[in-house]
Design a protein that fits this description.
Blueprint (H helix, E strand, L loop, with lengths): L12 E5 L6 H13 L4 E4 L13 H7 L3 E2 L3 H8 L11 H17 L2 H8 L5 E5 L2 E5 L18 H11 L3 E4 L6 E4 L5 E4 L14 E8 L5 E8 L3 H10 L4 H9 L11 H5 L4
Parallel strand pairs: 1-2, 2-3, 5-6, 6-8
Antiparallel strand pairs: 1-9, 4-5, 7-8, 9-10
The structure holds fe (ii) ion (FE2).
Fe (ii) ion binds next to helix 3.
Length: about 270
């Protein structure tokens, strides 16, 4: 596993976000929220582009706020000039929309930004109080593995934590947040995504705030962010992006990429 060395300095509270999907409006609101809540550092688990408009707009925000970014499957595909995003869809309709979105994003991501994406690490190790965190995109073993709450038994979670030599794994990619602690207090936190809502009928998006507890251990909060989703929807319409994507931003219901959802997660949505 290629990782960066442990983050230097002592950290007590961090924000972790994923799946920006070219949503600069949501990114700005999330960074403001994290700062207001006292986050000492902000980490992004990748997938900066896709789905939304004007992909180049998120990079200056990330740089201005010193966000430490790891590489998602979308970032890897853009950096290497792949033909598709490597999102792992099997349904033809999902692949149709994924291709449209990828082609739009590739054509509008500057060469300099694509070069920067190529430099990002696949993992990061962070020490938070006495806890060792492993930050990744899909899972520690595969950039585009979906870790769903309903299909990740405790046994698998324990093995992933053993292999990662970590007290907590933080991931994104699936688009749905969840958090589980094993009896020994080791954890998995899927931080959700900030680029699109999470199929719950509201336009808000989610990220994670992690705080080292004074006597050891970890406090994990999954936090909603309200942002100017109407501005995002209008920007998407002006760019001619698929109406199905715009509807999701406005309504909070997923209209595409549903085939990958396990039955329990899909039953919570409208479609
Ligand atoms: Fe992803």
């Amino acid at each position: 596993m290629t990782t960066t060395p442990d983050e230097p300095g002592e950290l007590h509270r961090i924000a972790v976000l994923g799946g920006v999907y070219s949503n600069a409006h949501a990114l700005a609101a999330t960074l403001d929220d994290a700062r207001a809540r006292g986050a000492e550092a902000v980490f992004c688990l990748g997938d900066l582009g896709g789905f939304g408009p004007h992909p180049d707009r998120v990079f200056p925000l990330l740089h201005a706020h010193g966000v430490r970014v790891i590489q998602g499957n979308y970032d890897l595909a853009l950096a290497q000039g792949h033909d598709d995003c490597g999102c792992g869809y099997t349904d033809p309709r999902d692949n149709h929309f994924a291709r449209l979105s990828y082609r739009y994003t590739f054509d509008r991501t500057s060469r300099d930004h694509r070069r920067w994406l190529a430099t990002l690490p696949a993992h990061r190790r962070v020490r938070l109080g006495d806890r060792r965190l492993l930050l990744c995109h899909g899972s520690p073993r595969q950039v585009n593995e979906f870790l769903w709450e309903s299909t990740t038994p405790d046994g698998l979670l324990g093995r992933l934590l053993d292999e990662a030599r970590a007290d907590a794994i933080l991931c994104t990619h699936s688009g749905l947040k969840w958090h589980r602690a094993l009896p020994d207090d080791r954890r998995l936190v899927n931080v959700g995504v900030i680029g699109r809502p999470e199929n719950d009928g509201t336009p808000r998006v989610w990220y994670a705030l992690l705080t080292a507890e004074p006597r050891g251990g970890l406090d994990v909060e999954l936090l909603p962010v309200d942002y100017d989703h109407e501005a995002q929807a209008r920007d998407m319409e002006a760019e001619g992006l698929p109406p199905e994507f715009v509807e999701t931003i406005r309504t909070g219901w997923w209209t595409t990429c549903l085939e990958v959802l396990p039955a329990r997660e899909r039953a919570r949505g409208r479609f």
